[in-house]
Amino acid sequence: MTPAETTHREPKQARSRQSFEKTIEAALALLQEYGSDEFTLADVSTRAGVSIGSIYARFEGKDELLRVAHGRKMDDIDAVTQHLFKSLPQNPAAGLRSVAQEAIEQIIEVLCRYADILRPFMLRASNDETLSQRGLASYAALADHFTTVLRQWPGEDLEQADIDWCFNVVYSVVARRLGLGSTVEGSGNLPWSEIAANLAGMVASYLQASLQQSN
């Protein structure tokens, strides 16, 4: 079995399917409430109103339940992310800083909206290869959206390595502010609008400087 595989058994009957979904929703709710995975399947059973036997009939244990819940949530986040980026106006006449800020604002929107559930999942991913791989896939998808927006700028061709570096910095700053991947809240008290503007200025300056050096 590869790290990305699970052995959970999704039911086909409507009533069983409802219990299955309630179990996943309860696990997600407890993750957000606790801010960690420090709860038991008995807690999930109580929250979902589903018997512990029913849970074990569908999942081998807590680890598998959380992997399934994580996959579901990451699929949701990916879909929302795609919608947000696709809704951005196509404006090739905009300056690089403006284009960068539009992309950065969407990254901030996604991470802020889902910070409460991403935080415990990121903590768990440090010891769970399945979660880590799935999280990296969503990270890569977000980076691709960022790249697509920046490439609307009608300047000279930007180096992908430069765009990737900018995305890594932007993501790290936002994640740090939200305390993602850490039990300690990120530092700083600047409003998000100012953070987005500052990051956009950094991205534009870096990319333009890189272009000048390559010419």
Task: Write up what this structure looks like.
The chain has 215 residues and is an all-alpha fold. It is 72% helix and 0% strand. It has helices at residues 14-34, 41-48, 52-58, 62-86, 96-113, 115-125, 129-150, 160-178, 192-214. Helix 5 (96-113) crosses helix 9 (192-214), helix 6 (115-125) packs across helix 7 (129-150) and helix 8 (160-178) runs antiparallel to helix 9. The mean pLDDT is 89.
Brief account:
By secondary structure, this protein is mostly helical.
Oligomer: single chain
The general outline is elongated
Distance between the terminal alpha carbons, to the nearest Å?
50 Å
Q: What is the N-to-C order of secondary-structure elements (H for helix, E for strand)?
A: HHHHHHHHH
How many strand elements? 0
> In CATH terms, what is the architecture of the domain at 70-214?
Orthogonal Bundle
The residue-averaged pLDDT reads 89
Largest sheet: none
Q: How many separate helices?
A: 9
Low-pLDDT residue spans:
none
| CATH hierarchy class name of the domain at 70-214 | Mainly Alpha
- CATH topology name of the domain at 70-214, in short, is Tetracycline Repressor, domain 2
